[in-house]
Design goal:
Layout (H helix, E strand, L loop, with lengths): L5 E5 L5 H8 L2 H4 L10 H12 L4 E8 L2 E10 L6 E8 L8 H16 L3 E7 L3 H10 L2 E7 L6 E8 H11 L1
Parallel strand pairs: 4-5
Antiparallel strand pairs: 1-2, 2-3, 3-4, 5-7, 6-7
Helix pairs in contact: 4-6
Length: about 170
């Protein structure tokens, strides 16, 4: 679902205050591994480190040219064939753009980054995100520790073939 209405683009420094306002909003924060409010300094340090890490891809999702969400991908194995994603829609977004954002982001992950598989991690209590992953075409794999934390999460996985098959069936 990448068209003139929906697109993703790399995060720019000028996006940081917007991303931080989303990240620190209670509706977003309650589903994060780290639930504390992030300072401007911490946020800038995170951006500088992540933006210079070749295994990470930081993206803004836009609808009709307006930033509406944040997505990140991180390579799990060398060669970039598998990655894990994270995302959130702006808590101020009044439109139902979650599915479109997910499809646009995954298309980027498979087409531009070159992933064959993408993993999603969902905190067990976040039923809405679990349903979202299933709607996009992910398959539940297991309960396990998160890739970057000791928190127990639901792990979901989708491969490129399943994604494009699901996308075709949605249209």
């Amino acid at each position: 679902m990448t068209d003139y209405k929906h697109r993703v683009r790399p995060v720019k420094k000028s996006d940081l205050s917007l991303i931080l306002s989303w990240r620190n909003h209670e509706e977003i924060r309650k589903h994060m591994y780290n639930k504390k409010i992030i300072s401007n300094e911490e946020h800038l340090n995170w951006f500088n480190k992540s933006n210079n890490d070749p295994k990470k891809t930081l993206l803004i999702y836009e609808y009709l040219g307006e930033a509406q969400g944040y997505i990140n991908f991180e390579d799990l194995i060398d060669g970039g064939e598998e990655g894990v994603w994270g995302f959130y829609l702006s808590p101020f977004c009044k439109l139902k753009l979650g599915l479109a954002m997910g499809q646009t982001a995954l298309k980027y992950g498979f087409s531009n980054i070159g992933y064959k598989k993408v993993w999603g991690e969902v905190i067990k209590e976040n039923i809405i995100s679990q349903r979202f992953h299933e709607k996009v075409g992910f398959t539940f794999k297991c309960f396990d520790k998160a890739f970057t934390s000791d928190i127990i999460v639901c792990k979901y996985q989708i491969n490129d073939k399943k994604f494009y098959e699901t996308l075709k069936n949605d249209n």
